[in-house]
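Here is one such protein, fold included:

. . .
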Amino acid sequence: MRLRTRLFLWYGGALLLVLIVLVVHSAYEIYEYSRPIQKAAWHEIREVIFVELAVGLPLMLLGMGAAWWFSRDMLEKLQKLTDAAAGLHAGHLEVNLPKGRPVRDEVDRLGEVFGSMAERLRDSFAHARDFTLNASHELKTPLAVMRGEVETELRSAPPEPARLAWMESLLEEIDRLARVVDGLTFLAKADAGQIAFKAESLALSDLVRDAAEDAQFLAQPQGLGVEMALEAGACLVLGDCHRLRQLLLNLVDNAIKYNQPGGFVRVRLGREVGWAVLEVVNPGPGIPPELAGRVFERFFRVDSSRSQAIEGSGLGLHIAQWIVQRHGGDIGLATGGDGLTRATVRLPLAGSGRGLWG
């Protein structure tokens, strides 16, 4: 039941109770006063009840109508506050509330405080994005210098085996930090709305085929097999070619890293009504059901102790989710009862009428 209806019923019930008390009290007073003349007493009681009901009921209904009318403004303001609070998230911190109006009551004051809070949140998120973007930008130069110096040292003279292993390990760490910096730069720009998208009609099957070829190259050092199954037809989607390639590469790279010796990576593309459905399947350590909802968080890893030995920034799946959502699709990652981990992506087919850049 809506708050306005409850207020209306409570106010009406209170007025009705007051009216009943007045009628009973008046009748009792007349009865006591006219007790010696019982017939006159009952006659006067009936007249008083009739007059009080004839006057009181319309007044009560008038008061309830006035309460209903005057509560509208307050409850509409509360509804606007509720809608504004429900719409707040990291990518949308704008609060569309009336400004410049005088503060007349507690609800107006609440709206003023809420708007001020949203502005502080927006400023905090903007400062965090600016800091991440500036810090990642400043880190790129020293990382490039460090990499150049190590590569120059390797080319100048063949180092001893122990020193060679140390320098190769240093290069790997520099590359890992560079990937983290690139991921942070991408996400900071994405949060600020600075990532440009070029919408065009694409044959998703061609992109999947290219991604499977890349997966074969990446899987060779671990001796993993790569399988591909494409449904007949072009499977056209409307999207950004570069970002969709990035999405596919992130998924197959994740399937290769979290695999098992002698395992495989299976890439399948099919169609449902209005949707292109992509699956990337691999055996491996799996994802506990209680952690399945967190795999797309930034820097989250299922097994942090094991993940230290696996290269990666912990940002790949979050970036993949962002790309899918921007294309109006959805993505999921879970381990089934067969021990296989499945990354499932659904993208709207071109001409399906579903919105792009969701």
In short: Residues 106-156 form the longest helix (51 residues). The mean pLDDT is 76.
